[in-house]
Design brief:
Elements (H helix, E strand, L loop, with lengths): L1 E2 L10 H13 L9 H21 L6 E4 L2 H15 L6 E5 L4 H14 L2 E5 L9 H10 L3 E5 L13 H9 L5 E4 L15 E5 L10 E5 L25 H39 L3 E4 L9 E6 L4 H10 L2 E2 L15 H6 L6 E5 L6 H18 L20 E7 L7 H9 L3 E11 L4 H12 L2 E7 L13 E6 L3
Parallel strand pairs: 1-11, 3-4, 3-5, 5-6, 6-7, 13-14
Antiparallel strand pairs: 2-8, 7-8, 9-10, 10-12, 14-16, 15-16
Length: about 475
C-alpha cells in the first residue's frame, strides 16, 4: 500500500515511537501524584510542554494537551466564546474552516444566543481580507474570528498574519486551527488561540494541543478539574505526549528540506494529472499552499468509486468531496470555492514519500478514473459519434430530477451535441452538487453557462423541493 493521506494522519515518527516505548516504563503514573513515579511523569510532561511551546512560539504555561485535535478546537472555540461573551456573541468564521470549527461555533452561538457570520473565500479557497475588514467594521459585538493556517482539503494558505493585524486594531482575537501546518512550517504570528493535532505531524493519535495567549479572555465552558489548568478535563497520556513532542522536534529539524521535496512532487502532480486524465480541475492555490497537499476533481466520475478503485490498486488517498453514494451534499470547502466537486481526490504526501511512489500513482490514475466514470462517451462533452449536425435542435431540455452527482452532467455531456452551435440546453436537477458541477463542466468543456432559476414544475413535470433549471449554451 502506498499511503498518500498524510493530511488525515501522518505515520508515527520513528523517534516518537522510541520515546513512547521508553515513556511507558517511566511515565505511566499520574503526573499529579507526589510519589516518585508521579514526580517522574510530571518531569516528562513538563519537558514535553516546554519543547512544544518553544516550537510554537508561546510560553509553556500558555499551552495544554488535550485528547485530540478535535477536542482542542472544540475547547478553544467554546472557551474563547464564553470568555469574550461581554465583548460580543457574534463569531466570524472562514467559509472553508474544518468541520470541527464549524460545529463548535454552532454550539457556542446557540449557547450564547449569538450568531456566526461566514467570511467568503475566493476561487482558490483563500479568505477575503476585504470582506473580513467590512465585517469587523459592521459588527460592534464581534467576539472573535476563526481562520485556519491552511486549508485541510486543498492546501491553500490563509492570510493569517494580515487578518490578525486587522483584527487586533479592533481588539478582536483570532483563533487559528493550525493542524495542517504544525510541524511542517513556522507558526504564523498574531493568533490568540491555537489548536492542533499531533497525528498530523507524526505524533500518535490521541494528543491535541491548545494554546491560549496570556491576556486573552478565556473561560472553560465545560466541567473543569484540576488537570491542565481545567482546560482539558481528564488524565493526560504522558507517554503519548512525550512521543508527540519528540516527533515534533525531529520533524521540524527536517521541515525545510522535506517541504522543498514535497513542493517538487506536488508540482509534478499538478502538471501531469491534466495531461493524463481528460476533464480534470486541479483546485487550490498553485503556489501559496501547504507543500504536501494536492487536490483535483474529475468530471463525470464518482468520487467513492474512484477512491475504492485506487485502494484496490494499492493507493490510499482521501476525498474532500462528500459527493458519493452515501450522501447528498458536496464538500462545504469546494462549494465555497465554487469549483468542481465530482471525483474529488486529495493527495497529501507523508514525510517519507518517494518520487517512485508518486510516479506509480500517476501510472495507475488514468485507469482508475476510467473505472469511476460510468459512461466514457460523456468525456468529450460533444456530440456522440455519427450525430447529424443538420438535424440538431436549437433547444433541449434534460430532466435529471432525482439523479445524484455525477449523473446530471453525464447527461449534459452526452446530449450537448443534440443542439445547434449557439443553441441552449436546460438541465433540471435537484442534486445540490449540480449548482457547482454544471458551471464547472462549462469551464472545462468550453461551453457557456447562462445561469440558473428555481424550477417550479411545468410541461407535465412535477415540482421537486430544491429543483433548479440550469441553462447552458453550446459552443464549438
Amino acid at each position: 500500500m502506498v499511503y498518500l493521506d498524510a493530511a488525515g494522519a501522518e505515520p508515527l515518527d520513528p523517534a516518537g515511537r522510541e520515546a513512547y516505548l521508553a515513556a511507558l516504563d517511566e511515565g505511566w503514573a499520574g503526573p499529579d501524584r507526589l510519589y516518585r513515579e508521579g514526580r517522574r511523569a510530571r518531569m516528562l510532561l513538563d519537558a514535553a510542554r516546554e519543547a512544544v511551546a518553544q516550537e510554537f512560539g508561546c510560553r509553556a504555561d500558555e499551552l495544554v494537551f488535550t485528547s485530540s485535535g478535535t477536542t482542542a478546537v472544540h475547547q478553544g472555540v467554546l472557551g474563547l466564546a464564553r470568555g469574550r461573551m461581554r465583548a460580543g456573541t457574534t463569531i466570524a468564521v472562514g467559509a472553508v474552516e474544518h468541520s470541527s470549527v464549524l460545529h463548535a461555533v454552532d454550539v457556542a452561538t446557540r449557547r450564547s444566543g449569538g450568531r456566526s457570520v461566514i467570511v467568503p473565500v475566493d476561487g482558490l479557497g483563500r479568505v477575503s481580507l476585504g470582506a473580513l475588514a467590512d465585517l469587523v467594521d459592521a459588527e460592534a459585538g464581534l467576539a472573535f474570528a476563526a481562520i485556519q493556517s491552511a486549508n485541510h482539503e486543498v492546501g491553500t494558505r490563509q492570510p493569517v498574519t494580515q487578518a490578525a493585524g486587522l483584527l487586533a486594531e479592533r481588539g478582536v482575537p483570532l483563533l487559528m486551527d493550525a493542524a495542517v501546518t504544525l510541524g511542517r512550517e513556522p507558526v504564523p504570528e498574531g493568533w490568540a488561540v491555537l489548536a492542533g493535532s499531533a497525528r498530523k505531524w507524526g505524533g500518535p493519535t490521541g494528543v491535541g494541543v491548545l494554546a491560549v495567549r496570556k491576556g486573552t479572555r478565556f473561560a472553560a465552558d465545560w466541567p473543569e478539574d484540576e488537570r491542565e489548568r481545567g482546560w482539558a478535563p481528564g488524565p493526560v497520556n504522558v507517554p503519548a505526549i512525550l512521543a508527540a513532542a519528540t516527533a515534533l522536534r525531529t520533524r521540524l529539524g527536517e521541515a525545510a528540506a522535506t517541504a522543498e521535496r514535497h513542493r517538487e512532487l506536488t508540482a509534478l502532480l499538478r502538471a501531469r494529472i491534466p495531461e493524463l486524465v481528460p476533464n480534470v480541475e486541479v483546485v487550490g492555490d498553485p503556489d501559496d499552499r501547504a507543500p504536501h497537499i494536492l487536490t483535483f476533481s474529475c468530471l463525470y466520475a464518482s468520487g467513492e468509486a474512484l477512491l475504492l478503485e485506487l485502494d484496490r490498486l494499492g493507493f490510499a488517498v482521501s476525498s474532500g468531496s462528500s459527493c458519493t453514494a452515501s450522501t447528498l451534499t458536496p464538500s462545504h470547502v469546494l462549494e465555497a470555492m465554487g469549483v468542481l466537486t465530482q471525483g474529488n481526490v486529495r493527495v497529501s504526501l507523508p514525510w517519507r514519500v518517494t518520487a517512485d511512489e508518486v510516479e506509480q500513482f500517476l501510472a495507475v490514475l488514468p485507469g482508475a478514473v476510467r473505472v469511476a466514470r460510468p459512461q466514457q462517451d460523456a468525456e468529450a462533452g460533444s456530440a456522440p459519434a455519427g450525430e447529424d449536425e443538420a438535424v440538431a435542435e436549437p433547444e433541449l431540455e434534460i430532466d435529471a430530477l432525482g439523479k445524484l452527482c455525477p449523473l446530471p452532467v453525464i447527461e449534459l455531456g452526452k446530449r450537448i451535441g443534440q443542439v445547434q452551435v449557439g443553441g441552449t440546453v436546460r438541465v433540471l436537477a435537484d442534486d445540490p452538487a449540480a449548482r457547482l458541477d454544471i458551471p464547472a463542466w462549462c469551464r472545462l468543456t468550453g461551453h457557456d453557462y447562462l445561469g440558473a432559476a428555481a424550477f417550479e414544475g411545468e410541461h407535465g413535470i412535477e415540482a421537486v423541493p430544491g429543483a433548479m433549471a440550469y441553462r447552458v449554451r453550446r459552443r464549438e
